[in-house]
Amino acid sequence: MTEIDCNFYISGQLGKGIELHEFDISHYCVESSERYFAEIVGCIENTVISEDFLKIQSEFLDTYYKEFVEDEENRLEYMEIFQKYLSTVEKYIEEQLVKSVPGFDIRTFQEELQKNPKKLDGEIYDMLSTFWDFTNFKQMFLEFKRMKEGNSVDFSKDILVTKYTFHCEEKPFIQ
């Protein structure tokens, strides 16, 4: 990856020596106080799309989804499953973050997200909230159960995701 000063790029001038094949400006366009948070989010995103994580999570869901039923009552076995979930899925993410982000503390990160959930929204927030919000945890299992039993809409055949590669010919800048 090539570092790019965001302001310099936005002005349309890339300067000499910068390769245009791939670049990541996500950590260079934020205030220094937000870089740490952006680094954590980036690591989480990389972790949750990894084959290892997907395998761990899907095996866990496959093992326990039949235990959950669509009612308002929370059974005692749900709490046992929740504790196992924290000790496998959450622990895996935390281990990856500790390896990648110096000084990372998951409880501090969770507290910050709970205080300001708009800092991180969408699927990543929804998945992370299953670690501290039991209702979201239960809902995740119920949605997985509906999908496994064919009781949900399957959009997987209707969506195509492709990689976009940015190519640019090097041209001299005229000032």
Automatic annotation (TrEMBL):
Compartments where located: Cytoplasm, Cytoskeleton, Cilium basal body; Cytoplasm, Cytoskeleton, Microtubule organizing center, Centrosome; Cytoplasm; Nucleus
Keywords, in A-Z order: Cell projection, Cilium, Cytoplasm, Cytoskeleton, Mitochondrion, Nucleus
Lineage top rank: taxon: Eukaryota
Main location: cytoplasm
Keyword hit for Nucleus: yes
Transmembrane segments: none
Protein family (similarity comment): Belongs to the ARL2BP family.
Protein name stated in the entry: ADP-ribosylation factor-like protein 2-binding protein
Higher taxonomy: Eukaryota, Metazoa, Ecdysozoa, Arthropoda, Hexapoda
